[in-house]
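Need the bound structure for flavin-adenine dinucleotide, inputs here:
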Amino acid sequence: MSTTERPRILIVGGGYVGLYAARRILKKMRYAEATVTVVDPRSYMTYQPFLPEAAAGSISPRHVVVPLRRVVRGAEVLTGRVTTIDQDRKVATIAPLVGEAYELPFDYLVISMGAVSRTFPIPGLAEQGIGMKGIEEAIGLRNHVLEQLDKADSTTDEEVRRKALTFVFVGGGFAGAETIGEVEDMARDAAKYYTNVSREDMRFVLVDAADKILPEVGPKLGQYGKEHLESRGIEIYLETSMDSCVDGHVVLKNGLEVDSNTIVWTAGVKPNPALARFGLPLGPRGHVDCNEKLQVNGMDYVWAAGDNAQVPDLAAMKAGVPAERAWCPPNAQHALRQAKILGDNVVSGMRGFPQKEYSHANKGAVAGLGLHKGVAMIVMGKFKIKLKGRLAWYMHRGYHGMAMPTFNRKIRVFADWTLGMFLKREVVSLGAMETPREEFYEAAKPAPAPAAAKAPEKAKAS
Ligand SMILES: Cc1cc2nc3c(=O)[nH]c(=O)nc-3n(C[C@H](O)[C@H](O)[C@H](O)COP(=O)(O)OP(=O)(O)OC[C@H]3O[C@@H](n4cnc5c(N)ncnc54)[C@H](O)[C@@H]3O)c2cc1C
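Answer from helper R.:
Posting the output first, comments after.
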């Protein structure tokens, strides 16, 4: 890292908020006014709303991520994890990818570490579950699902086949409903290439503790989304939870028991637990406590936004929601807009200028449920336009295609979609990608010593 005399703006996390805030600060800052440092354990930002489509193979996984070093030119990008922060000394401790942890001093701090999967101590979950927060998980899920079809095709053992062809998803919000919609579509489509696996052999189960799915699009469209998924043969169990899944034996609260090799956990998120070591005021659910200017309460040199921050929702308050319940929900719509205001406020803060308030009224939500299927709710002033089916799916693609950061990535995503209109889906499982050295290792390892030759029997004395 550079050691300059300039003040350092340290951005912890290079996701949605980190990337957009860094770009905004670099744009608004005078030449050499400060050193902008972005720290993230990954060298790329992930556009999470596209993870379900990456899992289904509609978008190449590489096009869903944005390389930080390329898009925040002028900033210092450090690949590592911020583990603790000493607010008295204004020093962060960074654990790099390799080597010893080191300390990094800063003058201004941006906290944008997002959220992690919210889990519960359910027996078997840690060993069997897979989340849907990162591109690695989306690639892993796709390979795993296709591998289950290969497995089922290769055996006549009914029990093994049934377990391989049963897919359980826990959590029916954006992430869960979109992922099951996309993966089911992909898997049933892939079945046509198998001799011993048919579409009907597969079983998809969606479980949610709430009484509805897709709360983001409102009750009517959520109900439509549920009926639509059910019409495709997906079993949906609401107001129920998973009690255990030891060795893939899933037991639900409602008494249902199924065996499955695939348990996808998308039951919500919680703020990054590392925040507890940063010496910051936290809200009741672990978010960094911010004011409406995105400044951390009581700390005029620290800002936070996105999934790890509790930010008062001024627009909701204006619409009559009581202040104690009016917090910005954790979604990309807020993260993106907050990042821009946050960037402006950091530059103003550095110059001693006043801070801007953040206020954004919900513009609606779009969700894709597989190829040509979706739901959308667009808010226009007092009116809510509700769309479903193919039109909603186009809205979903149009909105997210345009929201994807950088022109380069937009072009790549639209190119993937265009190719997908003319070419058939890719249905190859590259499960071996996870252990790429295995075959070479087998070839290169020293050959076992030949079995000792049998000593010739002594000629019997005649
Ligand atoms: C599958 C899925 C689908 C979604 N679909 C939608 C949708 O359709 N519409 C919508 O509005 N929202 C959607 N969301 C939510 C949206 O993606 C998030 O709200 C948004 O990404 C939040 O941005 P963020 O910057 O707060 O966090 P993130 O984008 O998650 O970024 C956090 C960053 O912090 C880094 N980090 C973590 N720990 C450390 C550490 N110790 N030190 C340094 N860096 C660290 C992480 O590596 C990551 O890069 C979806 C989310 C998921 C998972």
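Comments: Residues 125-267+364-420 form a domain with the FAD/NAD(P)-binding domain fold (CATH 3.50.50.100). The pocket of flavin-adenine dinucleotide is lined by residues 12-18, 39-42, 48-49, 51-52, 81-82, 112-114, 132-133, 174-175, 272, 274, 306-308, 330-333, 335 (CB under 6 Å).
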